[in-house]
Amino acid sequence: MKKSTRIGILLVIVVIAAAAAMAEWLVIRDGDVTKLPSGLITSVEIGGPFTLTDHTGRQVTERDYLGNFTLIFFGYTFCPDVCPTELGDIALALDELGTDSVAVTPLMITIDPERDTPAKLAEYVPLFHEQLIGLTGTVEQIKEVADSYRIFYRRVEDPNYTYYLMDHTSFIYLLDPEGNVVALFRYGTSPEEMASIIRRHMRS
Amino acid sequence: MVILTVAASGSVLAQAHEHKQGPLTVVHPWSRATAPSQKAGGVFLRIRNDSNQPDRLIGVESDRADVASLHALIRDGDVMRMRPVQGGIEVPANGEVVLAPGGKHVMLIGLRAQLIKESNIPLTLIFERAGRVEIVAVVEAAGSRGPSGAGAHRAADTKSR
Ligand SMILES: [Cu+2]
After folding, report:
1. How far apart are CA B69 and CA B60, in angstroms?
2. Model ipTM?
3. Which residue in the set A28, A87, A126 is minimally distant from B78, CB to CB?
4. Which of A108, A198, B54, B132 is the most exposed place for a label (fewest CB within 10 A)?
5. pTM of the model
6. A195 Cβ under 8 Å from any chain B Cβ
7. A92, B38: Cβ pair inside 8 Å?
């Protein structure tokens, strides 16, 4: 990995930590990144161990995905806009990678475990990509993994509906084959950009 | 009155289509395929107004869902919040408004049936001046970015046919 890339990622990580400490959710603005003192860089970790259930009903941990690059997106199936857009973009990024895409495992971790059962995820994930794996878990398991990835989520009830929506952070993380977070893609990152960053990490 | 402008071949609404009523033209309403038990969907479209008077989209109806409403996505830092639109959506005079992913959409909550790729969703848009406009949205791939945007992933595309 190029040094400048590494510093960029670390800066992003620092901002995440700072924001997480200050706010009930993560507010990360691009301007903040440039203002950050570089001394803070090393103190924060993103990600970590998890135990979840995949869309086939199998219990999995982070170790099951080591050895491959991993894309992790947090979302929910009731989501009509952001999540399909992001998952569609992940699929396009994998297309863009061509045969290299076999070295990438795309994961969608639900932040709505109460509705997103393995069976529901099993219907949902193949709509986007044949490699996409859906992960769910108990409320506690999801809270733990979302916290470790600095993902904010909250149920939003509307008195007019019997259904609820979720507010949530829309990040896609890239993990290297050793399980380290090496890049973060914000909402709006183009599939081409995602693919080129993934490819750069594959070569480094 | 509803005028459907449809390109020659293929399934009826797979091509760009529009609905004209008075000065308003609703251009290519579209949605995304859903999984069988998925209960929500979004409809996206463009509204052109060729009049010197602004209009306002104030409501939407569809018998395909328990509730149809106007929603906006609010990007708050990196947190995405979806909220009902208060007071409708203005369609400027001699201008247009776009409901697209990442912005505003027609929200269908409590879908009564799965949205299958290339099927159609009839909807009624309700405008302050123009009144009720009947439209038909076409269902595209689940991960589609829209009719004119980048095509959806190929494998998922063929799979959901
Ligand atoms: Cu909505």
Report:
1. 6
2. 0.81
3. A28
4. B132
5. 0.81
6. no
7. no
